[in-house]
Amino acid sequence: LAEIGAKYGKTPHQVALNFLTRRPSLFAIPKASRPEHVRENAEAVGWTLAPEDLAALDEVFPPPAREGSLPMI
Fold first, then answer.
1. What is the pLDDT of residue 70?
2. What is the distance between the alpha carbons of residues 70 and 73, in angstroms, rounded to a whole number?
């Protein structure tokens, strides 16, 4: 996440949120206990990961093979 984030000038957290929110059947509820967290979360959208970065993330974080609850990260 850090390596990919460096390419875009984004934090690992922003890369993770961007990656997760691209799936129509998944939504994320990011924590925002401080104003800085709100700003960081807001900057996770409005840009697109390149196909090769999406493929790399899909390889490391594959979608589940079956429906069901997912662990929190």
1. 64
2. 9
Q: Is 36 exposed, middle or buried (0-12, 13-18, 19+ CB in 10 A)?
A: exposed
- The per-residue pLDDT for range 27-66, each reduced to its tens digit, is 788 889 999 999 999 999 999 999 999 999 999 988 777 7
42-45: Cβ within 8 A, 24+ apart: 43/10, 43/14, 44/10, 44/13, 44/14, 44/15, 44/16, 44/17, 44/18, 45/17, 45/18, 45/21
55 Cβ neighbours under 8 A, 6+ residues apart? none
The first and second tokens of residue 16, run together, are 């993770």
pLDDT surpasses 80 at 72: no
- What is the torsion angle, in degrees rounded to the nearest 10, for the CA atoms of residue 45, residue 48, residue 53 and residue 58? 60
